[in-house]
Amino acid sequence: MNSALPHSPAADRNKGPILDQLRALLPVGARVLEIASGTGQHAEHFALASRRGGWGWQWQPSEATPAGLRPLAERLAEVPGVRPPLMLDVRQPDWPKAAGAAGWDAVYVANLLHISPWACAGALMRGAARVLRPGGRLIVYGPFIVEGEPTSPSNQAFDIDLRSRDAAWGLRHLSDVQDEARAAGLVFEALQDMPAHNRLLVFGRPAG
Ligand SMILES: C[S@@+](CC[C@H](N)C(=O)[O-])C[C@H]1O[C@@H](n2cnc3c(N)ncnc32)[C@H](O)[C@@H]1O
């Protein structure tokens, strides 16, 4: 592999704990659309684990820009169970459909909502609701502000830093994200505490 590819130390730290959660959430043979795949470290780690475990996950990575797509495609070119990355900005109306299926079993996204304009939250929810199969899940990882719980000093500092870099960025309130999901027709299923004051949110598209 090209050692000059972009690398995220945070993705190396969180990929294991996230995988532990995905194992409980994704069925064998799951078709997963990943939004904002970034460096591709998550896709690579999850797909290799799926291969070792015989879970048969089919991973569809994506990125928002051609510049983001190029290194992602290079990292994932030979990873089994990973399809060639697609270009997808959550705000675009046409999201890729799962080939030959009623919809994706899951849409997965990590670390997008605090580092993009707030409009991306609603777009994410509406897009996922359109392309998930009935009973499918939207899985969202990242730092969130949870009402009634103290925000950690590290997340407070992170929030200030994000807003100084771009006034449209910043940690999101869980209740605001839940409101967007509800408006899109998704049902909030679970909130999982994760290492380093992160969370995993799970939303479902109703089966009926
Ligand atoms: C902090 S990185 C997270 C990457 C990876 N998911 C991870 O956790 O390591 C944020 C990613 O969101 C992507 N992104 C930003 N705005 C986006 C949008 N409107 N639609 C889709 N992806 C977007 C960026 O290109 C970037 O790769």
UniProtKB/TrEMBL annotation:
<dbReference type="Pfam" id="PF06080">
    <property type="entry name" value="DUF938"/>
</dbReference>
<protein>
    <submittedName>
        <fullName>DUF938 domain-containing protein</fullName>
    </submittedName>
</protein>
<dbReference type="InterPro" id="IPR010342">
    <property type="entry name" value="DUF938"/>
</dbReference>
<dbReference type="InterPro" id="IPR029063">
    <property type="entry name" value="SAM-dependent_MTases_sf"/>
</dbReference>
